[in-house]
Write a structure and sequence with these properties.
Layout lengths: L5 E4 L6 H10 L4 E5 L7 H12 L3 E4 L5 H8 L4 E4 L3 E2 L3 E2 L4 H11 L4 E3 L18 H16 L5 E4 L2 E2 H4 L15 E5 L5 E5 L1 H11 L8 E4 L6 E3 H12 L4 E5 L1 H6 L6 H15 L13 E2 H4 L8 H5 L6
Parallel strand pairs: 1-2, 1-4, 2-3, 4-7, 8-12, 9-11, 10-14, 12-15
Antiparallel strand pairs: 5-6, 11-13
Helix pairs in contact: 1-7, 3-4, 4-5
This protein binds NADP nicotinamide-adenine-dinucleotide phosphate.
Length: about 325
């Protein structure tokens, strides 16, 4: 059996461009949705053209034109969607319901991977307002997929390193502090950090794998299951200096939500579940799901010691 043809929806996005790259690298015939709505966005267009140069096919379709989506989907076997889902950038998770409708009508898709790539929404039914919107909307998409009997894989990628490791998990910055750092509670809850390129590699590995059919794939690279203190320790070793640490109590962290804008409130809720509750690691993967580094030991993933080096000054 040949390798599946893949359509990437959201291909010019933060995660999407990595999925396109991984799909091409793993030898899949790769199609990328080109939306007419990008209009004069020269950066998006140039990125799409660069995908084409690397061997991808661009396929025009719009979320406002059901028929165009169906026609695009009919050209491939697998759809990977990386629709936006970070509130301070853009959040359109529910738009995927239109994609689900089109996949249902096309009737040829062997696997659909919706835009997930974070905490497992099925485990976040109790999450705080307003951050729970992310999980509720991802669950609404799952419900539509499963009701339509579309074969799926859900990727639970945990914390993208660019958002959570590079800044030592500090909110409001993407670069690591050099003097002072905030610690969430005792800083010992285990968190999982994953290089975004590795997320893409594992995601594409899974699409033709019968072991992940209709399952959740958790990304838990063993060396990257770290507490915030352990992550900070790696940075301190790299810069040869101990940072001044201030612990934020659970109560103070939660009350900081008052007066923040909506996007920040969503962020505080997510950080709370990850860093105070340890929601990424307080369960076993179990029989019903799979773990990526176990299924694909051939993937050499990036450790956080290595990842943090890029933030060192020359
Ligand atoms: N675990 C983590 O730490 C973490 C961190 C960040 C994101 N995530 C998750 O990763 C997924 C992707 O997020 P991202 O940050 O990569 O997204 P993004 O870069 O903000 O956006 C991805 C793509 O969404 C498409 N899009 C946005 N608005 C649209 C609209 N109105 N109509 C049609 N398409 C639209 C665009 O596709 P085009 O290319 O067609 O323009 C865009 O490039 C989300 O599910 C998010 O929750 C997880």
């Amino acid at each position: 059996m040949g390798k599946s043809k893949v359509l990437v929806v959201g291909g010019t996005g933060y995660m999407g461009k990595r999925i396109v790259k991984a799909s091409l690298a793993q030898g899949h015939e790769t199609y990328v949705l080109q939306r007419p709505e990008i209009g004069l966005d020269i950066d998006k267009l140039q990125m799409l053209l660069s995908f084409k140069k690397q061997g991808a096919h661009l396929v025009e379709a719009s979320f406002s034109d059901h028929r165009s989506l169906v026609d695009a989907i009919k050209q491939v076997d697998v759809v990977v969607c990386t629709m936006s889902g970070v509130h301070f950038r853009s959040h359109n998770i529910l738009l995927q319901l239109k994609l689900v409708e089109a996949i249902k009508e096309a009737g040829n898709i062997k696997r659909f991977l919706p835009s997930e790539f974070g905490m497992d929404p099925a485990r976040m039914g109790y999450a705080l307002e307003p951050g729970r919107v992310t999980f509720d909307e991802k669950m609404a998409v799952r419900k539509a997929i499963e009701e339509a009997n579309i074969p799926f894989t859900y990727i639970s990628a945990n914390c993208f390193a660019g958002y959570f490791a590079g800044n030592l998990s500090q909110m409001g910055t993407l670069i690591p502090p050099r003097d002072k750092v905030h610690i969430y509670g005792d800083g010992n809850a285990k968190v999982i950090f994953v290089d975004e390129d590795d997320v893409a590699t594992y995601t594409i590995k899974t699409i033709d794998d019968p072991r992940t059919l209709n399952k959740t794939l958790y990304l838990r690279p063993p060396e990257n299951v770290l507490s915030q203190r352990e992550l900070i320790g790696k940075w301190e070793k790299l810069i040869g200096k101990e940072l001044e640490k201030t612990s934020i109590s659970e109560k103070d962290f939660l009350s900081s939500i008052k007066g923040l804008g909506y996007a920040e409130q969503v962020g505080v809720g997510h950080f709370y579940h990850v860093f105070y509750e340890g929601c990424l690691t307080n369960f076993e993967v179990g029989e019903e799901a799979e773990e990526a580094s176990e299924l694909y030991p051939e993937v050499t993933y990036t450790s956080m010691d290595e990842y943090l080096k890029i933030y060192l000054q020359n």
